[in-house]
Amino acid sequence: MQLSLSYICDSWPVIQNTYKRLEPYCDMGLHMDFMDGSFVPRLGCHPEAIDEARKHFAQHIDVHAMITCNNPAWEAILASSADVIYAHYESFHSEQQCVDFLSRDPRLKLAFKPFHTIAQIDDICDRLNVDNFLLMAYNPGIKVQNSFYDLNTLTDTQRYVTIDGGVTYETYKRFEDHDNIRLIAGSKIIFNEHYKQNIQKLTNGPYISAIES
Questions:
Q1: Cβ distance 15 to 210 under 8 Å?
Q2: Whole-angstrom Cα distance, residue 76 to residue 113?
Q3: What pTM was estimated for this model as a whole?
Q4: 206 versus 202: which is more confidently predicted?
Q5: Taking a C-beta distance cutoff of 8 angstroms, is the pair 196, 207 a contact?
Q6: DSSP characters for 51-107?
Q7: Which residue spans within the chain are E strands per DSSP?
Q8: CATH number of the domain residue 85 falls in
Q9: Fewest 10 Å CB contacts: which of 29, 64, 175, 178?
Q10: What are the angstrom distances between the C-alpha of 176 and each of 3, 80, 183?
């Protein structure tokens, strides 16, 4: 299992410190959201941040592009050093357009808004020959809502799955031995008022700043 820190959940120094602090204990990644204010109702970071993060600390970067399929930002995203890039199934006008788009770069995979069951997502991935998908557990832009999925059902799929939204320490413990799972670590598991205690739980030891150590 990989634990990928959500880039938009805190400041750059805190994200970098957290990554370095957890790196000896977890298979770490950095999760970067790109949003255009149209496909989803908020804005994200700029594509140039991908290579900046790579230069300073991130060994693995997964990108979640919550933008329309014809957005000009795609050129910069595809030119970046990202390891995997998720494009939204719902952003395409047809499945053929989706297939054509994914063929542009082997790093391109599919993301899904929480409008589909996991069985439906598996069927779509079968049709489009996709072996790796991102599952949004929440609708973007809505602060108070419950997860749309029973994450236990993910053990039924053989695909690589990234769980984005609602990841708690209990989710982490449930999937820590699953090689085909990536968890996006955000405000429910790390970046909240219990930050130091959260780091202690994930490292099984006292909190020490990676910058200070």
A1: no
A2: 23
A3: 0.90
A4: 202
A5: yes
A6: HHHHHHT-S-EEEEEES-TT-THHHHHHTS--SEEEEEGGGSSSHHHHHHHHTT-TT
A7: 2-6, 27-35, 61-66, 84-88, 108-112, 132-136, 160-164, 181-185
A8: 3.20.20.70
A9: 178
A10: 9, 29, 9
Instruction: Say if residues 91 and 114 touch (Cβ distance below 8 Å).
Output: no
Strands 181-185 and 2-6: parallel
- Residues facing residue 107 across a β-bridge: none
Asked if residue 63 belongs to a domain, the reply is: yes
Q: Which residues on neighbouring strands pair with residue 63, listed in sequence order?
A: 32, 85
Which pLDDT score, from 0 to 100, does residue 14 have? 96
Q: Kindly state the DSSP code that residue 205 receives in the 8-state scheme.
A: S
Of 116, 113, 91, nearest to 102 by C-alpha is: 91
Q: CA nearest 61: which of 112, 19, 13, 121?
A: 19
- State which residues form the domain around 151: 2-203
Place of tokens 């063929």: 103
> Residue 155 domain-assigned?
yes
pLDDT of residue 144: 47
Distance CA 102, CA 109 (A): 7
Is residue 209 in some structural domain?
no
62-112 pLDDT, tens digit each: 999 999 999 999 999 999 999 999 999 999 999 999 999 999 999 999 999
Give pLDDT, residue 67: 92
Domain assignment present for residue 122? The answer is yes
What's 175's DSSP letter? Answer: H
